[in-house]
Write a structure and sequence with these properties.
single chain, alpha+beta, 11 strands, 26% helix
Length: 223
């Protein structure tokens, strides 16, 4: 608004001042109009902010708008205001960890793993790096776990170790130390497990430490 005023001031011609009598009624009307314009401007700004909120390229089968709004608000700033693209879905690509790895080959962007188990619990992980086969752990402190069981809970990096993500053709592991993986999935993306870990100081993400996967999705951000 200040910039617009400066532009008008610079562009406008110099004119002689004049005096105009304004009644009290006119003053109130002008104040009312100004308030209405400010309100409309605020509403438009709010809508613009809402429209810039990150969206998914496809309809998720696992998270609704309420889940999405809550979850995306906790993502790192570098991933916000960008569209998220579906790169893997058990409903589309079948239940295969090998396929999951293959679909992410060549990616160089963070990924969001969302799981729904047979008890209808939704949980997962944000990984700073795409999932891949590796002999060593990879990822950064941006990696975190989350669950909507029953309410939203985020488990950030504790700083105790760097066992963020590791995986081979037999399983995918996220978090470790303390007796078990924070999140573990088998080669068929059918059996899973979640234990407390030193990496995230997390509780079990589902209602049971061992669970059966109903569906899983992986999303990645692209700018």
């Amino acid at each position: 608004m200040i910039e617009n005023m400066k532009v008008l001031y610079v562009a406008g011609d110099c004119v002689e001042p004049y005096v105009k009598i304004i009644t009290v009624k006119q003053t109130k009307r002008r104040l009312s109009l100004c308030s209405l314009e400010d309100s409309e401007a605020d509403e438009q700004e709010f809508q613009e902010v809402g429209n810039s909120f990150p969206v998914l390229s496809d309809q998720s089968q696992l998270i609704d708008d309420r889940h999405l709004k809550t979850l995306l608000a906790h993502l790192p700033p570098r991933t916000q205001s960008y569209k998220w693209y579906l790169v893997y879905s058990t409903a589309i690509h079948g239940s295969s960890l090998k396929t999951l790895y293959r679909n992410m080959a060549g990616l160089d962007s963070p990924v969001l793993l969302v799981i729904k188990d047979m008890h209808k619990k939704v949980f997962g992980a944000f990984s700073s790096d795409p999932f891949r086969i590796s002999k060593y752990c990879y990822g950064t402190g941006e990696t975190f776990l989350f669950t909507f069981s029953p309410d939203f809970q985020q488990y950030k990096w504790s700083g105790e170790n760097s066992y963020f993500v590791s995986g081979d053709l037999g399983s995918l592991q996220i978090g470790g130390g303390g007796g078990g993986f924070a999140l573990w999935l088998d080669a068929d993306l059918y059996h899973g497990a979640s234990f407390s870990s030193s990496t995230f100081h997390n509780a079990t993400l589902s209602t049971h430490e061992d669970f059966i996967v109903q569906d899983a999705e992986v999303w990645t951000v692209q700018n």
